[in-house]
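Sample intake sheet
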Amino acid sequence: MNLERRDRPPIPSRSVKNSGPNFAERRRRGRWAYGALATVLAVFAAGFARFQIFGVDQYIVQARTNHMRVMRAPPPRGVIHDRNGRAIAENIPSYDITLLPGPYDSIAARIDRLAGHLNLSSAQRDQLLAANRANPGEALVVRKHARFAEAAFIEERRPQFRRVTVNQRPRRLYHAPRSVAHITGYVGEISPEELARPEYAGYRPGQTVGKTGLEAYYESRLAGKEGVRYVEVNALGSIVRSLESGLEDPVEPGADLHLGIDADLQAFADSIFPADMKGGVVGIDPATGEVLLLYSHPTFDPNDFVGGIPSDTWASLRDDPGKPMLDRVSMASYPPGSSWKLVISAVGLNAGVFALDDYQQNACRGGLAYGNRFFRCWSGAGHGPLDLSGAIKGSCNVWFYQAGQRIGLDRLLGGVNDFGFRELSGIDLPGETGGFYPDSREWYDRRYGPGNWSESVEWQLSIGQAENQQSLLAMAQFYAALATGESPVRPHLVRDEALAQRRAGWALGLPDAQRTRLVDALVRVVNERGGTAYGHHLARWTLAGKTGTAQNPHGEPHSWFVGFAPAYDPRIVVAAVVEHGHPDGEESLAVPLASNVVRRYLESIAMPPEATPGARPPLVATTAGTP
């Protein structure tokens, strides 16, 4: 047995095994292996914690979005109300037919399937495909403001149109649209050019924006904020349910606007404006600056633009020689004719070159010679000798020719700077344009060449002709200052206390006694026999105003009337112009238009009748305008 033990090979001791030459290297490699394994396990553990613990909310959302679709909800625009609370622009329900996002070929096929049911033209199809290429991840609105029958057709055949949704959206509706078109303006789809402008930052293609009028001027207030909701779709792209995930952005409706406009007065002006004529009429409350009436003729229907205007309708508006899209109150100007004579009166009185009781050197005999030219008065028989009040009542050109000559060209050109005629009124409408009046002698040199014009331009300027173009708003502002003796409030459509505090930076500068006597003269124009507007005085109130007949090279003279009532307690200032509205020997069309508007407005506010219309009250308490 001992021999057997001696025959076995010797067993190495532990100290011999761990002390070989490769032991240290093996041990170093083992530590590296253990470290690498620990690192890998740590990375896996950290990733597990990130995905399963710390990032669970994020990845739940991401998982959901793999089968979620974004549905955008357009907000209702703010309602536009008149001064009596009546809606003149509001929203009614309509429907959008929309395709959910998907592959381009699938979208094209579905558009083709819808085309026959929705009467889509090939041009509309191409536009839709272009919109999809530009924004492939967005739902594609195939038909905005679809008819109920079109929406019902889709809903009744839901299995055939799995990726098509029908969503309710607000549609703009204008009441008495033709009477308010130039006030409200209209809405339309935002253009690429508008999207590039800073004021439309955050807007998306396809959104509705205001294009003209109040809709454009107050876009930021009326628009509201688009809402977003998420829906779950199945593998076929059909909507399964709305997701209540807390990710929805609610719709924020636009803010309402409350105007000083009287919708009934607008409709009345539309009904009495000479049907085949062009022009406009504006009425302003001189105490607050609120615009009570703003009407331009011819007009258009802003409802035609909602949801996209048909090309033939747009072409007819664009090519209409009457230019129905032009707002002739805020975007047009005309020679003011004899309505300008009150401006000349104020310039002359301020300069001290004549007084209220002055007679001119030459009485009116139907005209007056200047060199080898003969300047006519509108009355061929002449007016005879007149003071300023009589010249205003009879609108005598000869008296004002001489007034202009006495004032002198330099003061004629500079004097209008005191009355705001070289600035805009500041009305809250886009695109207001001002009038024109020469600013210096140098303007004539540039226009006609030095030595090619004479001082006779004084005569033409003094009766509102020649190089003189004024807007209805500018003339209404001047007459508001004349009516009140105060700096006029800048006109505004929206009723707002802050806007009612904005006054023009000028006033007439006349002592109140002089101003009141000018008002007396305007009263004579309407209320005394021989006055140029006598046939249209009011039965219950005193209307004061001035007619104007403005010659033009394109046909019959334009007809003007600017005035206010009641004369000594003014509640409305009105300015009206009818293009080619005063043919020789015929009635001036602007006068009955303005007179009837004033009467209708005073009736609407239940203005108490005067005891003796046409007479000045025995006491005039105001001292406004006295230096």
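Comment: The chain is about 35% helix and 15% strand. Residues 619-627 have pLDDT under 50 and may be disordered.
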